[in-house]
Amino acid sequence: MLEEVFTSFTAVKILYYIYVMSLWLLTSNLYEPCPPAAGVSLLLSGPTVSAVSLTVSPDVQQFFSRKAEKVSLSCAEDGQTADGMKVKRTVEGKTQQCGNRREDFGFINDSFCIVSDLSRSDSGLYWCESSDRSSEQINITVTDGALILEVPALPVLTGSDVTLRCRLRSGLNTESADFLKNNIKIRSEPDGEFIIRGVQQSDEGFYSCDFDQAESARSRLRVKGSSLPIVPLVAALVSLLLVVLLLVAVLLLRRKQTGRKHEPDSDKSHLHETTYADVSIAQAANRREKHPADLETIYSGVKTQTAGLDDVTYGQVVIRGQGSAGVRPAQPSEPDMVYSSVRAGK
User: Fold this and answer.
1) Rounded Cα distance, 249 and 235, in Å
2) Statement: residue 52 has pLDDT above 60
3) Is residue 209 a contact partner of residue 191, using CB atoms and an 8 Å limit?
4) Which residues lie closer than 8 Å to 42 by C-beta, 6 or more apart?
5) Residue 345 CA to chain centroid, in angstroms?
6) Which residue from 73, 80, 81 is spatially nearest to 54, judged by alpha carbons?
């Protein structure tokens, strides 16, 4: 009994440690970003993007060059404004920082970098950077042409729907458009909109659109995996299942032990029985009389079987056959025996 309790307690401790470890994995960051190389954007070792990101508003990569056209840029980390981060860009091989100095681009308004009156000279790679961290780069294109393709600037989640719009300088969608991926035509849409449903990693690539012999610039559609790591989720579910199975096993064990306590003792389920066997009758010859002498009863091979309570059956054998001398009694074929049973009290 003590050994079973100790085994159950040990199993509970082991499963508890597994459950705590799975919760720790679920709340920790399994994917550490790789350090960026010189002149290369930050890459990831897992399917998730960097915790620091550049937010673009509106969330597109292509703009028309014109007065009053502007874009707002900011640095975010885990959905919050990232302190100490600066917005930078590379234009025609020159790196600049957003600020209010003469050599800077744009201007700072609160925590946002505002770039207004967009022109072709604003086309380039934009990102967030601090002394020890950097975000992914976003390619912003400003065109003098008549056509742009609206592609999200931020990565889209796998499984979501994304809409690519082919727009005119007037702000309206084209009446129809051909959509290209990596310079290969993939489909035509009558309303100038291409909806990709259930985006997968294979949908990543450079997209553009054609309309009335005009072609937009190419912009990259980026796809990222689910923000919740699947490994700790599976670990948590497995550990929870093990805990449930352990509880079921403990309940079954207790039920079995309770049943044993109420089970009657098998040694008391039978009665003591005394069995007499191999009873033989021997007759002795009489010298004077030819009738048989006194019958003698000889018991041999008495076997006793004990299997339960003290219920004993006693058999008494009485032999009737002796008469007066000289009188030959009628000899029965078998001696008359009277058996009586006595059951011992408890």
Assistant:
1) 21
2) yes
3) no
4) 33, 34, 36, 50, 134, 135, 136
5) 65
6) 73
Is the pLDDT at 238 greater than 80? The verdict is no
Sign of CA dihedral 89, 91, 97, 100: negative
Q: Tell me the one-letter amino acid at 208.
A: S
Residue with more model confidence, 97 or 276: 97
Q: Which of 55, 59, 19, 46 is nearest to 228 (CA)?
A: 46
Q: What would the two tokens of residue 31 be?
A: 């994917």
Higher per-residue pLDDT: 37 or 201: 201
Mean residue pLDDT of the chain comes to 74
Please name the residue that has the structure tokens 């008469």: 323
Contact 75, 55 (CB under 8 A): yes
pLDDT above 70 for 187? yes
* Tens-digit pLDDT profile for residues 108-155: 998 899 999 999 999 999 999 988 889 999 999 999 999 999 999 999
| CB hemisphere CA count around 346 (13 angstroms) | 7
What is the tens place of the pLDDT at every residue in 197-206? 999 999 999 9
Give the amino acid at 30.
Answer: L
Q: How far apart are CA 246 and CA 131, in angstroms?
A: 51
Is 150 in contact with 173 (CB distance < 8 Å)? no
At 71, the pLDDT band (50, 70, 90 cuts) reads very high
Q: Are 116 and 108 in contact (CB under 8 A)?
A: no
- In sequence order, the 6+-apart residues with CB closer than 8 A to the CB of 20 are none
Of 11, 24, 5, 14, residue with least CA distance to 229: 24
Token pair, residue 191, equals: 């309303």
48 DSSP 8-state letter: S
Q: Which residue has the tokens 């039920």?
A: 255
Say if CB 257 and CB 43 are below 8 A apart: no
CA angle 234, 236, 237 (to 5 degrees): 65
What is residue 39's predicted lDDT score, i.e. its pLDDT? 33
